[in-house]
């Protein structure tokens, strides 16, 4: 049995949930990215109260460690690590792109390769590439979109693109093997992945677990 508190504040939509053996008991969502910090701890308190669970009885805490919003990632990671340290609970980290890929994998009936895309400003994206079984082909990284983006994989196979930067790529992509889908991340994918890590004791070291930023923070030029 695993009772896990799941935290995702890495993107524009923050999702907090409590799950039992990977099944979500309850979740809360915040759609205002700049408000994730004030939302997080209030949401955790509300969920625990609603589920009648004491925080000390949580078995582990899972957090999305990026890529995504720098501020959002820091908020989630700092909160998760602080709670784990205070409660002597294990920490589980899962990257945003894997959570996104898992969210569409069950409906991937045509066996496309999967490519989640996150906006990284200008024409840059955070992306990863998976086969239909979620095996990693290209691990998470940052890249600049151009007409030949992933051409060596699109020529022999079909790729399903999704995420908040998919529209940006769709506007310049003309490859017949590229497909696009809208995606809404829910609490279920993170909960399921966190449970898988828990049962194999795949935990992170609190002292050495870092956010997955993938690129340097962008500072606008001074006027």
State the helical fraction: 25-40%
Summed over residues and divided by their number, the pLDDT gives a mean of 92
CA-atom Rg in angstroms: 18 Å
CATH class of the largest domain: Alpha Beta
CATH superfamily of the largest domain: ATPase, nucleotide binding domain
CATH topology of the largest domain: Nucleotidyltransferase, domain 5
Helix tally equals 6
Strand content: 25-35%
Distance between the termini: 56 Å
Q: Stretches where pLDDT falls below 50 for ≥5 residues? A: 217-221
Describe what you observe in this structure.
The protein is an alpha/beta fold and 223 residues long. The chain folds into two domains: 3-95 and 186-199, 2-Layer Sandwich (Nucleotidyltransferase, domain 5); 97-181, Nucleotidyltransferase, domain 5 (2-Layer Sandwich). Helix content is 30%, strand content 27%. The chain has helices at 36-51, 70-87, 96-105, 151-154, 166-170, 187-199, and strands at residues 3-8, 14-20, 23-30, 60-64, 91-94, 113-119, 124-130, 136-144, 159-162, 178-181. Strands 3-2-1-4-5 form a five-stranded mixed beta sheet, sandwiched between helices. A hairpin with a 4-residue loop joins strand 6 and strand 7 (124-130). The longest helix is centred in the middle third of the chain and has 18 residues, at 70-87. The model is unreliable at 217-221 (pLDDT under 50).
